[in-house]
Amino acid sequence: MKRSPFARRRLLAAGLAASGLLGAGLLWARQRSPAAAAALLVDDFCVLAPPLAYEPSSGLGLLQARPIPGDARCPVCGMFPARAPEWAAQLIFSDGATQFFDSPVSMLIYLQDVGRYARGRSVTEVAARYVRDAGGNRAQPGAWLDAGQAVFVSGSDALGPMRAGNLPAFADRAAALAFAQRRGGQAMRLAEVPRSLLKQLDPRAHLGH
């Protein structure tokens, strides 16, 4: 339905007003306490970043890791994963649709409540999960690793794309332990990552970004 210029102006004004209210709420909450501001942002802010459909013409297998599109956004924190490819993660649904993330932490938070970020989807549809080998860098990112086989390091001094703690991933325990010896932290498998740690590392809590 085509709207009149007057109707469009009213909708735009309403949208700006809503944005202003959210901004004011965050400012008020931040002045009271950082925790209150983080809670408001987590509860009220949602990024529109639906999974990207599988393209058979890409030449990639249905569940094969994909290159990160420059305009892809993380549905959890809103960042652009392609800007820090050495930290990126991705998961692929059984139909080949792919969701990209700025970091392993964001992917694990997403997996706790898939339907919240991708309407109509469920965790049972997730067929593949990939993280980057932390041995790479922005110029030459590490290989994609099966997240279920990777070994993560928690509590190191490695800062993720939001300049906060994260979970760098490695292809095997020896590499993870060597990293932890240099930079601190402890090695753990995916199934060993506790919910309490994900809550602590939740990127939406770092409002200074």
From TrEMBL:
Matching PANTHER family: HTH-TYPE TRANSCRIPTIONAL REPRESSOR YCNK
Cleavable signal peptide: none
Gene3D superfamilies: 3.30.70.2050
SUPFAM superfamilies from the UniProt entry: NosL/MerB-like
Name assigned to this protein: Nitrous oxide reductase accessory protein NosL
Annotated organism of origin: Kinneretia aquatilis
